[in-house]
Structures are given as structure tokens and as C-alpha cells.
Amino acid sequence: MVLHANQHNPSASSIANVWNSRVQGVGFGVLVSPNGELNVVQSTIEGVMPDAHGQHGGISQAGGTVRLADASHVIGDENGVRIFNGTKGFYTEKNVLTVNHSTVTARAGSAIEVMESPELGRDKTTATILIANHSTLEAGNGRLINVKEESTANVEVNDSALTGNFVADDTSTMNVALRNHARLNGNIVNGNAVIIDSSGHWQLPGDNSIKSLTIDGGSVGFSGDGFHTLTLGHLSGRGRFDMRIDPANGASDLLNVKGQASGNHLLNVRNTGEEAVPSDFEALRVVHTEGGDAQFRLRGARADIGAYSYALEQQGNDWFIIGSGKTISPSTESVLALFNVGPTIWNSELSTLRGRMGEVRGQEQGGGWIRTYGSRFKASLDTGLSYQQRQHGLSFGADGPVSVSDGQLLVGLMGGYSQSDLDMGRGTSGEVDSYYVGAYGTWLSDEGYYLDGVVKVNKFHNASKVAMSDGEKAKGDYSNLAVGGSVEFGKHIKLSDDYFVEPFAQLSSVWIGGDSYTLDNGLKAKTRETQSIVGKVGATLGRQFTLKDGGVVQPYVRVAGAHEFSRSNDVSVNDQRFDNDLFGSRAELGAGVSVSLSKRLHVHADFDYMKGEHVEQPWGANLGLRLAF
Length: 629
Known about the structure:
Number of helices: 2
């Protein structure tokens, strides 16, 4: 099909509308001359084998307007669409191509080629090209747009994703705009001006050089083999640059602005849990400008590389990722918290005799009990790790009396479950599910002394959920066992006016099996074992009230001091050692009430506060019930 202009009236247009059809020709499917207008809807146009005059392409556009719409398809053995100036000075040059929800395919050459007239040779060509609404360009030589021979192309990609290169030769000019969720995965070679709007993205697989980049909230990403440099003559606006670094080899992607840079820009350096940082790492340049007021910052304020996070620092007109001032990374925080929290969980499940079973003195018969509890902890370690822990759980047990010569002895079994949620801030968290069984024996003498012993075995399931500084997620999990015991000794001393005091001492110890696991971002964590040895001394002061119906109420307060003796809980993160112990002293304050509703039914409630060098418990609550058999 040949669509010519009207030679007797150059301002008039020849218009062809192709609907739901297939057009095929040798050399070209359709030739559009100056002032011609071609509208293609739900149709296919194909040009096969160049003709004797060298014409080739699905559409040969020598001026005029071409619109492809509604899943139309243009196919050429050489080029899909070939645009050139065919006016010979007589007609108004338009050369407007719109590809709307359609496809242009070149089997051997460029999808769209802009060039001078093959016949006139001296006329320069200017083309306006719009690729819109989920359209596709396919090129046999990898060039989606090819501009050559002193031609100019103004290309807009709108709401379409393209893979391939935009190329202009040294004599030509190419301007590119990516708008409305447009994405280009390919190089822009010899680009003049590139504009990326707030939802546009350019993914460059190699080194690129363009004269001007204006970016209005959009993004540019570096990818492909090795590291690449984006060289700009000028940078303005506000945008995000997705970059990669390799401190171990002193290599990185580089944004190189040879002229003035302005605006505020975000560097999204790819985070990883793999260790790639040498011990002597100091600085790695990621941005260079020749001047201007541009500001650059890291997404998430830091870049996570292995066990540590690193900052961005401006030095003159350059910006560097620096090794000084490093902090532990969110991935490291997550694994350290999980390896650290086991003793806190174990001891909260254990509690003291009064917290576990309430008031048992005077109950010669056995019974069953159940308690529910919750608490919140804040930990701050020498490694720089800080986290909050929220724990809730349920314990239950049953015991029976055993005859002894002095007082009474209760022997029983217990079990339970608790869940702990850890919050390291900025979206990084952890979770520990604890299942446990144990046995206990409680001796109560006639003189008021008591001795309580507990042996407990736990199964922990631990899970990390990491939000790295660049916003990417990582996770990992592992399971381990714990075994430990507690011995508590005290005496119930009656005072005047139904007051009483119970001084006590408790020693508890737990051994938590070591394990190793790897987060899916490559971070490797390992610990051989975690140990805790806690000594505690304190006293409970209370008063007993007898109600008219025979019930007994015992309100009380408790003060205690505790000390963690263990100080060798080392953790290895990517073969780097971290001291993860909670060694130090702490003070405890509590209040509660025990109520005997009948000779068989007793309830109790406790509220606690604890403050130490590395750990604080702002609150803890415990509610229990015991039923004598």
C-alpha cells in the first residue's frame, strides 16, 4: 500500500484507515508519504525482503502521521518502522509515529529507525515518536530506536516496558522521556536530554553517557555484569539511583556528573548480608560532580554490607561510602537478639515459687495449677544492640503430697508455652516460640522454711525478620534446645498483727544449645552455646486478712536484687566475634495479692518491675489459680 500526499494541494492529506486487516508487501507493507495519515486498528502490517530500491520495513514513513492502536502489529524483515524525510521541500514534514497498545517488530534490524532520505541524501529528518499503553518494541539487532545521519528523534515512552537499546550516532540528536510508569531496560547511547517522571525507571546494563538528565521523582538502576558508570553533562531534579558496591575489591557503580548537579537525590545502594568489607576499608566513591548544590543521601541513611552498616559522606564534590563510624547492621541486630533472648524467656517462664503457684503453705493435699503471664523487656548491650521484647505465655502443672518426717513435700510435673516478639526498630523483628516441660519439688517445714527445686527442658523455634536499610527484606530461622534448673530457699516469718515476711534466695542456671543459620541475604550467624547463671536474694512483706466467710487475702510487696554471672556468650556473625552477654546486676520490685476463695480454690496476681545495667522490665503481670484435690 502506498499512501501519497495530494500533489495539487500540498496542504491536503491522504488518509487511510486499516481496521481488523492484514497488509503485506515486498520491501514494505505501507509507504506513507508527506502529509499522509495512516490509522491502523487491530491489524497487522508486514514488509518482507527489501525491494530493488532498497525499501524495507513493515512501514516506510517519509513524513506524515502513523497511528497504531488496539493490539496492532507491524513487522519488517529489516526494520519495523523506517522514518525519513521525503518532502523534497514541497510538503510540511510531520513524521509523527504513535504506537498505542501495539507491537513493532524488526526481524534483523532496528525496531524503529530514523535516518535521512535514501534518495535525497541531503535532507535532515526530525521524528516524534510515542510508545504508549503497554506497547512493545522488538529488535533483531538489540536497537529499539536507531537515529542516524544527522537526524533528530524525540521519543516518549508512556506506560510501557521496553527491553533494548536507544542509539544515536555522533551526528544525530535523540531526546528521551520516560513517563507514567514507563521502564527502559537498556542503554541510551549518545542521548541528548533524558527526562524521567515520578514513576519512570531506566535500568542501564552498561556504561552510559548523556548530556542532560532531568529526573522528577523517578529512578535509574545499574545492572549487568561488573560495575558501570553513568556520565552526565548535567543533572537536575530529584531521583533515586539504584547502585552496587564491592568494598572488598574497591569497586562500585559511579554517577559521574561532568558539569553542574542540582536537586536532592537518593542513593539506593544494594544491601547484602554477605561479608564483602576488608578490615582496612575506608572510603569508596559513588558520586562525582564538578559543582552545583546537589545533595545525595543513602536510602535508610546507611548501607548494610555484611555484619555492619556504613554511612555516606560528602568530601568536596564527591560522595563516599565510608568505613569509619560503622554500626551493626539490622541483620546482625536480629541474630544477636535471638541468640541473647533465650535466658530471659527461660527465667520468665520459671518465676519464683510464689509467682508460680501462689500461697501453698497450709495445703497438705496435692492439686493442679495454671497461670498466665505477660511482660515487656528492654535490652541494651555493649555491642550497640538495643531491642524490645514482649512475652506472653501459659504454664500449668499438677502435684501430689509425699510423706516426710518434717513438714510436707509436694512433687509435680509442669509444662507450658510462651511466645516472645522482638523489635529492633526500623522494621526488623524476631519471634521465639518456646515449648517446655519440667518437674518440681516443694518442701515446706513446720518451722516456716521452704525449699523449691525445678528442672525444665525447652524447645525454642527462632525466626528473624529483617528490614535492611535499603528497604529489602531478609529472613531466617532455626531451632534449639535448652535445659536448666532452679533452687529457691526461704522462710515464712510471722509478725504481729498478721504481718509476715519471707526472705528468700534463688539460684537458677540454664544451658541453651548453640546453632548456626544463614539469612536469605547471605548473613551467616553461629553460636556454640548460651549460658546464664542468675543469683537472686530478696524478701516479701505482706499481711493476712481473714474475711467473714472464711476466705483469706494476702497482699504483699517484694524487693530483690539479682546478678547475672555469665559473661562468655560469644556470637559469630560472618566470622566476626560479638560479645553477647547480659552480665551485671539488677533490682526488682513487685506487688501482688493471694486470695483463698475456699479451702480448695486459691488465686493470685503479681505485678513486677525490674531495672538493670543491660536489661529493664517496665512491667510484668502474672495471674494464677490453684485447685487442691
